[in-house]
Amino acid sequence: MRISCPFCGERDSREYTYRGDAIALERPAPEAGAEAWEAYLHLRDNPAGETRDLWYHEPCGAWIVVTRNTVTHEVLATAPASEAAR
Amino acid sequence: MSRPGASLSQSGGVFGFIACYPRHGLLSSGGQQGNPMRYSALRVLKEGLTGQKGWTPVWRDPDPRPEYDIVIIGGGGHGLSTAYYLAKEHGARNVAVLEKGYIGGGNVGRNTTIVRANYFLPGNSEFYSHSLKLWEGLEEELNYNVMHSQRGLINLFHSDGQRDAFARRGNAMINQGDDAILLDREGVRKHLPYLDFDNVRFPIYGGLLHPRGGTARHDAVAWGYARGADRRGVDLIQNCEVTGIDVEGGRVTGVQTTRGAIRAKKVGIVVAGRSGQVAAMAGMRLPIESHILQAFVTEGLKPVIDHVVSFGMGHFYISQSDKGGLVFGGDLDFYASYAARGNLPMAEHVMDAAMTLMPVIGKAKVLRSWGGIMDMTPDGSPIIDRTGIDGLYIDCGWCYGGFKAVPGSGFAFAHLIAQDRPHETAARFRLDRFRTGVGLMDEEGTGAQHNLH
Predict the structure, then answer these.
(1) Quick one: which of B97, B156, B177, B292 has the fewest CB in 10 Å?
(2) A71, exposed or middle or buried, with CB in 10 Å at 0-12, 13-18, 19+?
(3) pLDDT given at position B38
(4) Given an 8 Å threshold on Cβ–Cβ distance, is A47 in contact with B289?
(5) How far is B156 from chain A (nearest CA, A)?
(6) B334 closest CB neighbour out of A18, A43, A47
(7) What are the residues facing A53 on neighbouring strands?
(8) Chain A residue at shortest CA distance from B275
(9) In this model, does residue A69 exceed pLDDT 50?
(10) What is the pTM assigned to this prediction?
(11) Which residue numbers in chain B have pLDDT < 70?
């Protein structure tokens, strides 16, 4: 699997560390309540198909949101997490 | 080198060919219910002398009926054992198992077959201890040779800190009533003389031996439970994919399938890597991310690896099947996937680790590799619980350790479904621990990230 870093171009997946679903960018307020925190920390849509997840590109230190297919491993789009979070 | 399970595996040779027969069950229709056909040495002898013509399909291949008391979604190891114990322990007589493919075609037929009870935390510890006891009586229970071989499992350690952690784990295992022996370097050498003890980066300090750990024949476990359940009247319905779960007024009323609607008073979901999709049919979102785990098998070799061995500093563990192939694997590929195939970086890492630990196997040729879909929870421990919907139960989150749990999980899930209260061995496998934070069982202490367990 090769993933395109928005800053460095297409690179081998070995250069990346996987964090999990891009829901990690949507941290709830500290007092948002148990359900919001459960949804953020633990619950997942876990789709068989298109998903958005968060990868760290070690050589350049960028967090990247990768849109990809969990069934085919096809990478559809990538964007810096700083833009995706806005 | 002792091999406590050797006598079991040798008697396995006599019966081994029988285990091929259930495949014919897939092709046939029509009932064999009530045909006793118990396996025995006498029967093997008789069939051997009469051209093996007396064997019949081991389970029926029935069409679904319009209604059941209990429907189990998922005909893998856990679903089949659940159905078996529902019939046997709780007298359930009107049960169906719905399998979208064929019996034994999922993870239960493609794992690395390791059976152990070396868990540390309360909750997991008593559960796996119970499951191992069920394993130890399974062949007699099922009248089926599952080739359970307690050849001993050795987890190696490579630093002082790791030794302390394993000493603590071993004490927890002994306190649970199971067995553990802390081996020093020379103790390991007696069992595993072929390791690279003086590796400059990861020298071997010792290992934790779990003598009752070992392996079993994975397909035979599925077939044995399938046969046992079928014989007690459970309908095993293959090629029947569930496409919807019917809920009325907060209570489950049945399921929609590719072979028509089936009404049911109770429904159990036990579908491993597909838990997210099936639960979504009932409007649920689970604390599960599905990940890929690879495994590898070499060509058949003469006996070389007598135990189950795991490397403490890389992702690698290995055993040798009775057929001679080295069966080994590593860790997840670490990204969410349903592809049922891995990528090369993890394959490369596993081979690296193998060569670091035991260069002796370096010339063995890898015959095949595959990837399974693992239902990873954020604390690495499973779920056996009710859901927010009356009559709907779920058993999932086995991460990559589901095989050894097959008997214990089915036993506990059957108890939950039949009695509507958890079995004592699985009382801590609660779904709500992920909301309350109470009773999380993070065995490896890696935190709330699904792929790290």
Answers:
(1) B177
(2) middle
(3) 83
(4) no
(5) 27
(6) A18
(7) A21, A66
(8) A46
(9) yes
(10) 0.92
(11) 1-36
CATH classification of the domain holding A51: 3.30.2270.10
| Residue B452 contacts A, CB cutoff 8 Å | no
pLDDT of amino acid B34? 45
- Mark yes or no for CB contact A70/B287 under 8 Å: no
Give me the pLDDT at residue B180, please. Answer: 98
Taking the C-alpha atoms of residue B195 and residue A41, their distance in angstroms, rounded to an integer, is 41
Whether A20 has its CB under 8 Å from any CB of chain B: the answer is: yes
User: Which residues, other chains included, contact B5 with Cβ-Cβ below 8 Å and sequence gap of 6+?
Assistant: B148, B149, B150, B151, B214
pLDDT score for B26? 39
Minimum CA–CA partner of A36 in chain B: B435
| pLDDT score of B9 | 35
Give the residue numbers spanning the domain of A49: 2-84
Query: Which residues does chain A have within 8 Å of residue B434's beta carbon, measured at their own beta carbons?
Result: 38, 41-43
Of the candidate CATH numbers 3.10.450.50, 3.40.140.10, 1.20.1440.230, 3.50.50.60, the domain formed by B6-114+218-287+379-452 belongs to 3.50.50.60
Given a contact cutoff of 8 angstroms between Cβ atoms, the answer to whether B240 and B64 are in contact is yes
**Could you give the ipTM of this predicted complex?**
0.96
Where do the structural domains in chain B lie, given as residue ranges?
A: 6-114+218-287+379-452, 150-216+289-376
Assess contact for B225 and B77: CB atoms under 8 A.
yes
Does the B150-216+289-376 domain belong in CATH 3.30.9.10? yes
